[in-house]
Design goal:
heterodimer, A: 3 domains, three-stranded antiparallel β-sheet, 17 helices, globular, B: mainly alpha, Cytochrome Bc1 Complex, Chain D, domain 2, 13 helices, 0% strand
């Protein structure tokens, strides 16, 4: 090798140093810009009571945004906050949205509320944690923001102090939030696509904005950010132990092949039967909560618009997952024994399910997802489809947490994932143990 | 002939159409459209038809007063009783469906198993029976029987029977009231009573109760015409 020319080395070093400096300065400018938001003036006099129609519209939008689900603690007063949202970085506690002047939004003007939704900043200018999904809410229109504000102001004030977040260093710092925002967040309103019909655009506005479907259905990187264009590609809900399936992939929960009415049924009633009587899909886990608290209350027109937009999301070009290797025969034998003892009464000997009651397991995409966390949750904890006006008396699945061991639960899920044409990977007892 | 000529390709198409494979799969079955079928999620733990077993912690729910069962279902869902499993199960169920589930189990009239505790220690029995029958006026503890019925089979509409329950479950509940993990609607009379019990009192009560055979009539008695010894939020509802 030739000895490097010292002059060239010096020049290279200088360029590298300059580039690093430039990067640092850019980062510093970005952070300072993010942190330089000013406090907005507090509301001093109570504004005149809002128009009841505006409040009613805000109440509907709050349902669509499912605000109460996070901003209400179990058994707590509605919208008074306190529910903890577990994230990989610690727990974020949802705030008090009632108009209490001390602890709630009592001093928040409509401008301050709009800025929180649109820019993710508190009234005092602090950056908000993106567990509050302003990456989606930034698309909410000013008109809808004002209606939501009017509705929240109409609630009885609750003097419940906000619980401080329990986040680890450095994630809890404003500087970390500034960096995160520089990487993943761009404030911007909803841009309708003029080539698409009005109902598609309405659906896009709801799905991408207020209903914040991407908060769960997007894959997240190590910093909890979502890559542009991947908002509906499916993601592990790290704190919850559930997988929110892709809304595009044919092999997950892609809806391109579904009739619009089936999508509407799922969101309205919690189950879709596809006209056959056999469940085509049923909301479970966190999605059951979404249907129960939010989507069942939406108008048919809005649900049809969402269905139209959702159908158009896919299918993506993903190749079918390769058939998984066959599980060890001992595991399949154990799985079959457990299946025959516990599962056939409802799901059928051939995994065919039961009309209007229990979903088939043969060809069930929720069962054959690459990640087995959802079936493990279902077997461990059981559950009911949400009780909705369209399905007021749902059938239930028992929790097997106390009856079956980790090995038995892993075996029975593996058996179902590899029977009746299903070809998904085996599940290990460790995967079950992790979710206990 | 022309009909056959038209039909033949259709038959062929039906045989080799990709959908034909789907049609060959067994069609979904039907299950009974009943509450018993719907609440199989409950009976795996709480025993066949909710009548419990002598093994384990899970209480009998069959035949308890409907108001009591409904209160417990909403308590679990809304965090006044702490049991993550029950909360997860009930999270997305409406008040009206929980009422229906409560009515279903309350309406079951099923035999009880023999008492769980055999050969209980004599001193515990005496102490337990004294508290059950007479309470302890010096400590403002009413007799259990004053509210739960002289036969301890409960009182309509919302006071549960105390017999036929596992000892561990009974101790667990008294402890949960003492530590604030279990709440009822205010005023929470049972929390007040449980907080007046020593650990030995709770053990003696649970031993005596879990050692009793059921009386011939296992039904909850009618609502009391007299005021109860304490004000209880669960009963007012």
């Amino acid at each position: 090798m030739n000895a490097a020319n010292p002059a060239v080395v010096r020049r290279l070093l200088a360029v590298a140093l300059g580039a690093a400096l430039l990067l640092l300065v850019t980062l510093a400018v970005l952070i300072v810009r993010q942190l330089s938001a000013e406090a907005l003036p507090p509301l001093t006099a109570a504004p005149a009571p809002a128009d009841p129609a505006l409040v009613a519209r805000g109440a509907y939008l709050a349902r669509a945004g499912n605000c109460a689900a996070c901003h209400t603690a179990r058994g707590g007063l509605p919208y008074a906050g306190g529910r903890g949202i577990d994230t990989p970085f610690g727990t974020v506690f949802a705030g008090n949205l009632t108009p209490d002047p001390e602890h709630g939004l009592g001093r928040w003007s409509a401008d301050a509320f709009w800025r929180a939704l649109h820019h993710g900043q508190s009234r005092d200018g602090r950056l908000l944690y993106p567990a509050f999904p302003y990456t989606s809410f930034t698309q909410i229109s000013r008109e809808d923001s004002d209606a939501l504000h009017a509705f929240l102001r109409s609630l009885p004030p609750v003097a419940m102090p906000n619980r401080p977040h329990a986040l680890r260093f450095p994630y809890r710092t404003q500087a970390a939030l500034a960096v995160w925002r520089a990487l993943y967040f761009e404030p911007g309103g909803f841009q309708p696509d003029p080539t698409q019909p009005a109902d598609w655009n309405r659906g896009a506005y709801l799905v991408r904005g207020l209903a914040h479907c991407a908060a769960c259905h997007a894959p997240r990187d190590a910093l909890g950010g979502v890559a542009a264009g991947r908002e509906f590609d499916g993601g592990l809900m790290a704190g919850q132990g559930w997988y929110a399936p892709s809304l595009r992939s044919r092999f997950e929960a892609g809806l391109a092949d579904w009739a619009a009415q089936d999508i509407v049924d799922l969101l309205k009633t919690g189950v879709a039967h596809g006209g056959t009587g056999a469940a085509k899909g049923a909301a479970m886990g966190p999605m059951a909560e979404v249907v129960f608290h939010s989507t069942q209350h939406l108008s048919d027109a809005d649900l049809r618009a969402m269905a139209r937009y959702l159908r158009g999301l896919g299918p993506d070009a993903a190749a079918p997952p390769p058939a998984a290797p066959r599980a060890a025969s001992a595991q399949l034998t154990l799985g079959q024994r457990v299946y025959e003892a516990q599962c056939t009464d409802c799901h059928g000997a051939q995994g065919e399910g039961a009309r209007q009651a229990y979903p088939p397991l043969a060809g069930n995409r929720a069962l054959t997802l690459a990640s087995a966390v959802n079936p493990v949750q279902a077997v461990l904890n059981g559950g009911f489809a949400p009780a909705t006006a369209g399905n007021p008396r749902p059938y239930g699945m028992p929790p097997y947490r106390t009856l079956l061991s980790d090995a038995e639960i892993a075996a029975v899920i593996t058996y179902a994932r590899q029977s009746w044409g299903n070809q998904a990977a085996a599940v290990s007892p460790l995967e079950v143990q992790r979710l206990r | 002939m022309s009909l056959l000529r038209t039909a033949f390709p259709l038959v062929l198409a039906a045989l080799f159409w990709p959908g034909a494979a789907v049609a060959a799969e067994p069609p979904p079955r039907t299950v009974p459209d009943t509450m018993a079928q719907r609440v199989m999620a409950c009976t795996l733990c709480h025993g066949k038809e909710g009548r419990a077993t002598n093994a384990g912690y899970f209480p009998r729910i069959a035949g308890k007063p409907a108001g009591y069962l409904y209160n417990q279902l909403t308590h679990f869902r809304d965090g006044r009783r702490q049991n993550p499993g029950m909360a997860t199960l009930l999270d997305n169920l409406s008040d009206s469906y929980l009422r229906e589930i409560a009515d279903h189990f309350a309406g079951l009239d099923l035999p009880y198993p023999p008492p769980q505790t055999v050969n209980p220690p004599r001193d515990q029995l005496a102490r337990g029976e004294a508290l059950i029958r007479r309470g302890d006026p010096a400590r403002q503890l009413p007799a259990c029987a004053d509210c739960h019925g002289q036969a301890l089979t409960g009182r309509q509409p919302a006071i549960p029977g105390l017999l036929g329950l596992p000892r561990d479950y009974l101790i667990g509940q008294l402890g949960a009231w003492q530590t604030g993990l279990r709440h009822a609607h205010a005023p929470d009379c049972m929390a007040q009573i449980a907080k007046g019990l020593t650990p030995d009192d709770a053990g003696a009560l649970a031993t005596w109760l879990s050692a009793q055979p059921l009386p011939a009539d296992t039904h909850a008695v009618a609502p009391s015409a007299q005021p109860l010894p304490m004000r209880c939020g669960s009963v007012a509802r």
